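The instructor's notes for this session suggest beginning with a concrete chain rather than abstract definitions. Hand out the sequence below and ask the class to guess, before any prediction is shown, which regions might be ordered.
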Amino acid sequence: MKKKATGNHQLVTVWGEKFDRELVLPEYPRPFLFREKDWKNLNGCWNYRVYGPDKAAQNSENPREDALYDGEICVPFSPETLLSGVGRILNPGERGVYERTFLCPEAWKMRRTFLHFGAVDQTAEVFVNGKKAGEHRDGYLPFSLEITDLCEEGENLLTVSVTDETDLSALPKGKQRIERGGMWYTPQSGIWQTVWLESVPKVYIRDIHAVPARKLEGDWYVRIRVNLSEDTPGKVSLKLSRSGRTVLETEISQGVETELRIPDPELWSPEMPALYDLSACYGEDSVSSYFALRSFEIVTGKDGIPLTALNGKPYFCLGLLDQGYFPEGLYTAPSDEALVSDILKMKALGFNLLRKHAKIEPQRWYYHCDRLGMLVWQDFVNGGGPYSKLRLTYLPNIFMKGNRHVPDHFPWIYGFFGRSDKEGRQYFDEQMRETVRALGHSPAIVEWGPFNEGWGQFEANAATEKLRALDPTRLIDQASGWFDQKGGDFFSIHNYFRKLRIKPQKDGRAAALTESGGYSFYVTDHAYSESVYGYGEFQSREALTDRIEKLYREDLLPNIKNGLSVLVYTQVSDVEEEVNGLLTYDRKVLKVDEARMRKLNLELLDAFAREFGAS
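After discussion, reveal the predicted structure:
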């Protein structure tokens, strides 16, 4: 890791520069189950205090005197971020306490009221008017609490108490680390996605499942199930439409999966992201949703080579590692437009896939990938105990050849992967189930990645079986990078330092280069830190583009004929000291030649199409 002369910890994007604290992420946060009215956004200014480990924050007689910090915070930005207005880390053992008031409209009195959180890192206890509404632990997944009986006439007090042990806990932690540096980033805590209230009827639509299925060539169906809040017999009215044109209208029994044939189907792809609108009505409740017709699978190409296929035809997945960090908000983008910009810029460069790395995004990000046409490979957020750089990074990346096989299913090996904690291993099953439940609606997501580079890996084959049972419609990269257990759908390689040599796979799994490149280019005045981290350093846009072209011509193109089906280049943008993005951390500078980058990507796609007859 080298030092540069300048760095700027106050970096902001153009969206951060025009950030309005009076209008913070105002969009409805759940596009796949949308109610047009009867909801209230709670983002904005809250009171925030931090208490030390020896103070009882909830019951203190002198809460302000006991606080280590007492001020305001802009929700949903973590206190560690610039946009939060706090700029203070919540350390292990400390407790952060959020407070604000809210009013329930008069029209909500005879209905049910829910409080929704997009995500709170890492554990949260929620109180309404001093009474406990519920608690949640995870850090990345959405949760909801019914607060109907806790709400009072007039003003109500909402309190959220959070703790965060970051990498001292076996819970999911992603790329956060208390001692940040290199490929590990600033820890963050507390509320980092939208908080909102919603009013629904006594019996309401709880969720909608819409799963596409192709039975015969050109014959497409969607399997739909609508679940109500109560096991009440009744019919749910459905309307399916596409581009404003009604496709069909029908009624289905609540809670029962019904298969519907779609006439004249329009298929979803990155090139033509066709979405079908879906509206459902039951009693006083009505919601809108969407789905798409698409399949993603492994097919056998010429010479028996396994290939990735979209909608039944060989398809090359050409993507980037996407950390999803912003300098002024860390995990939280300063605006919806910032999320859209990253997706559109990568599409303009010729990419069709983003590998969402060790993070779960707000649900609007997946909606934008769905509507704009961007495939998503979704990592599960890594957990477990401390990771050994020597065992899990340096040795396999530098000294060991091939996709390293170290058995991960014996109790004595758990510690090698940072999985000695039994509770953490048990929680992983719950995490898998809840991640699939939270994100499974998105047609853009075509793959799940349970483990990355041995970070918290254990019993990967058993995990793959459980995940396949939860969601048989998507492919699985069970161990991205190394410590392969010979399962899942991909022979998954991370390669930064060697000549790439792909062999035609004989076990039915497709060859996937799931991390590569990672070349650094430090752009003065657009860098967060004085340090430089990456895999080879270059001094100009031309030099960086030349090196990427060399990677394409010497490593990637020659391996197409051997079945290379997936490329993931590291990465979309710089993150703190890691300056190997195609964009600077503040998104103000594209560090490669746009025309050459797009030409290289088109050349790679054309080579795959010529070799395997892809469309």
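Then share the key points. The chain has nine helices and 34 strands. Residues 541-559 form the longest helix (19 residues).
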